[in-house]
């Protein structure tokens, strides 16, 4: 008898716990769409106060059969399948009557001032979800919003209790800047393909659209160049601290490029020159003015190396490198570095940069360079990446260049959060989450306004960052702030409002397995 009573009590307790769980999770999804904690904040949200319920018979319907749309549909299905346990077929249909479905609609003739190719419109009714865009990129960006409208546990791989509710209403959205990027330095410490893919997966959630890979520096050359094999065979052999280093074969580089492309993220490869080139100089004696190869370098000094700018072979080398890199880089940019060339005479640096610009253009690519290159004659369409010297940025603008804003004091992800941060450096200062978020690129440099700015890029230098866990810690949660700076108009941005939405992202970071810094400034949910 006692056993029977005990069983009933335990069952009752289990049912009660499950109901509480469900109640708490459903309580989290407000029926007011404008209260959704979306980052980056959409341009406009109109709430209609009801719920769409994602059910097991839901399908993802694409408006036309194309590889891209099917890929986007399958990407969304894969993101929802694990935690809901639903089947999610991707179906091609122009019909949108069937209820319960998510419709991805490519509408190339949708015009209007804000239909830039990353814009989208999301209409959520009780019965259907309609995501419309004039390009597959816009659909992909809208899919990230759908993910964030579902409870954070949607990001878990294993089946979770429902319900899966989304508040009804309309979201119209598009980015303020066309370049919203992150830079990863894979030279100081090498990060393999899987680590880079993991980072790309996280960046896609927050509508980041460029990943700049700093592929070469004093400590390591990280990309196979078939015509100069010693660059990786020898120059890829080590890293800061003397570890094994590593490099991407051209096949692995293409694997990264394609993985990013499927997430509408463009890879920007950087070959830093004429400075930051010890790995090259250690690999080929003939590229040194002295004719002698240097030793491999595993320290963290900068500004001590230079290519031999006065020898013809240097430009043959650069032409071979840029040609091979351009052939495996579908994106528009090749980054030529140009920073901290303290070992290069100014009278040699200027003609060097001018020649390298011609080489990049001859291979059909646009030039990106740290804004140190502004002392040379900048060709058309050059983008100067501002990092420290305000004067360089103004000279670049005076030559008609666009500025990519990466001010070290505000957007260097290797800067410590505060004095207690074990990782990172603080030569440019401490960058807590609020300080990162309060950067307004268009107001940062007098004389450099919004029309001169291509966008924003947060840079993670890895002298002190040795693995993916440490990378995640320095990138998150500041990254979501930069994503919002690049996407949401500054008039719509406010730290006190943003920090509440960021607090809601904490559970999402956790459920995505991101090792984020739990800043004390945020009330993490
Ligand atoms: N400056 C150097 C980087 C790196 C960085 C670390 C630039 C453009 C300091 N150049 O930033 O190579 O060492 O914070």
The main β sheet shows up as:
8 strands, parallel
Task: Report how far the terminal alpha carbons are from each other.
Answer: 44 Å
Radius of gyration: 25 Å
* Helical proportion, percent range: 25-40%
Outline the structure in words.
This protein is an alpha/beta fold and 525 residues long. The chain folds into 2 domains: 29-173, Chitobiase/beta-hexosaminidase domain 2-like (Chitobiase, domain 2); 179-490, TIM Barrel (Alpha-Beta Barrel), CATH 3.20.20.80. It has helices spanning 2-28, 67-84, 136-149, 193-205, 230-233, 250-261, 278-283, 312-327, 346-362, 390-398, 408-411, 433-437, 441-444, 468-475, 478-487, 495-511; strands at residues 44-53, 60-62, 90-92, 102-106, 120-124, 129-133, 165-173, 179-185, 210-214, 216-217, 220-221, 266-270, 333-335, 366-370, 383-386, 402-405, 453-460. The strands form 3 sheets. It has an 8-stranded parallel β-sheet. Strands 1-7-5-6-4-2-3 form a 7-stranded mixed β-sheet. A two-stranded antiparallel sheet has the order 10-11. Helix 2 links the parallel strand 2 and strand 3. The longest helix is centred in the N-terminal third of the chain and has 27 residues, at 2-28. The two termini are 44 Å apart. It binds ligand IFG.
How are the SSEs placed, and which strands pair?
Layout: H1 2-28, E1 44-53, E2 60-62, H2 67-84, E3 90-92, E4 102-106, E5 120-124, E6 129-133, H3 136-149, E7 165-173, E8 179-185, H4 193-205, E9 210-214, E10 216-217, E11 220-221, H5 230-233, H6 250-261, E12 266-270, H7 278-283, H8 312-327, E13 333-335, H9 346-362, E14 366-370, E15 383-386, H10 390-398, E16 402-405, H11 408-411, H12 433-437, H13 441-444, E17 453-460, H14 468-475, H15 478-487, H16 495-511
Parallel strand pairs: 2-3, 2-4, 4-6, 8-9, 8-17, 9-12, 13-14, 14-15, 15-16, 16-17
Antiparallel strand pairs: 1-7, 5-6, 5-7, 10-11
Helix pairs in contact: 2-3, 4-6, 8-9
The site of ligand IFG has 9 residues, from loops.
């Amino acid at each position: 008898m006692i056993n029977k009573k005990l069983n009933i009590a335990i069952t009752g307790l289990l049912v009660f716990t499950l109901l509480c769980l469900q109640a708490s999770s459903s309580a989290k999804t407000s029926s007011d769409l404008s209260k959704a904690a979306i980052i980056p904040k959409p341009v406009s949200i109109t709430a209609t106060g009801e719920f769409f319920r994602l059910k097991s018979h839901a399908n993802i319907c694409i408006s036309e059969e194309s590889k891209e749309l099917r890929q986007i549909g399958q990407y969304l299905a894969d993101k929802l399948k694990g935690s809901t346990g639903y089947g999610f077929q991707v179906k091609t249909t122009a019909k949108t009557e069937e209820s319960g479905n998510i419709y991805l609609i490519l509408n190339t003739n949708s015009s209007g001032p804000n239909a830039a190719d990353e814009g989208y419109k999301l209409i959520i009714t009780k019965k259907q979800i309609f995501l419309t865009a004039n390009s597959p990129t816009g659909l992909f960006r809208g899919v990230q919003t759908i993910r964030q409208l579902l409870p954070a546990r949607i990001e878990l791989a294993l089946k979770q209790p429902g319900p899966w509710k989304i508040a009804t209403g309309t979201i119209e959205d598009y980015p303020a800047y066309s370049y919203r990027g992150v830079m990863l330095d894979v030279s100081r410490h090498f990060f393999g393909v899987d680590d880079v893919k993991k980072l790309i997966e996280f960046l896609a959630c927050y509508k980041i659209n460029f990943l700049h890979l700093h592929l070469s520096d004093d400590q390591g050359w990280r990309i196979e160049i078939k015509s100069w094999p010693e660059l990786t065979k020898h120059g890829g052999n080590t890293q800061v601290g003397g570890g094994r280093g590593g490099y991407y074969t051209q096949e692995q580089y293409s694997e990264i490029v394609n993985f990013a492309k499927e997430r509408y993220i463009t890879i920007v490869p950087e070959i830093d020159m004429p400075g930051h080139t010890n790995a090259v100089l250690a690999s080929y004696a003939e590229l040194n003015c002295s004719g002698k190869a240097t030793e491999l370098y595993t320290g963290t000094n900068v500004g001590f190396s230079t290519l031999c700018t006065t020898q013809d072979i240097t430009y043959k080398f650069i032409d071979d490198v840029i040609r091979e890199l351009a052939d495996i880089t579908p994106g528009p940019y090749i980054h030529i570095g140009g920073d901290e060339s303290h070992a290069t005479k100014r009278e040699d640096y200027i003609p060097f940069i001018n020649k390298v610009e011609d080489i990049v253009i001859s291979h059909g690519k646009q030039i990106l360079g740290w804004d140190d290159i502004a002392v040379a004659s900048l060709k058309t369409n050059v983008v100067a990446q501002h990092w420290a010297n305000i004067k360089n940025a103004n000279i670049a603008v005076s030559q008609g260049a666009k500025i990519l804003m990466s001010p070290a004091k505000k957007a260097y992800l290797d800067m410590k959060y505060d004095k207690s941060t074990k990782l990172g450096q603080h030569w440019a200062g401490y960058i807590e989450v609020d300080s990162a978020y309060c950067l307004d690129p268009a107001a940062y440099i007098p004389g450099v306004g919004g029309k001169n700015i291509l966008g924003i890029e947060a840079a993670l230098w890895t002298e002190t960052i040795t693995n993916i866990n440490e990378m995640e810690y320095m990138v998150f949660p500041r990254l979501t702030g930069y994503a919002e700076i690049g996407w949401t108009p500054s008039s719509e941005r406010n730290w006190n409002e943003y920090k509440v939405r960021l607090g809601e992202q904490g559970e999402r970071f956790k459920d995505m397995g991101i090792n984020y810094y739990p800043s004390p400034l945020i009330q993490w949910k």
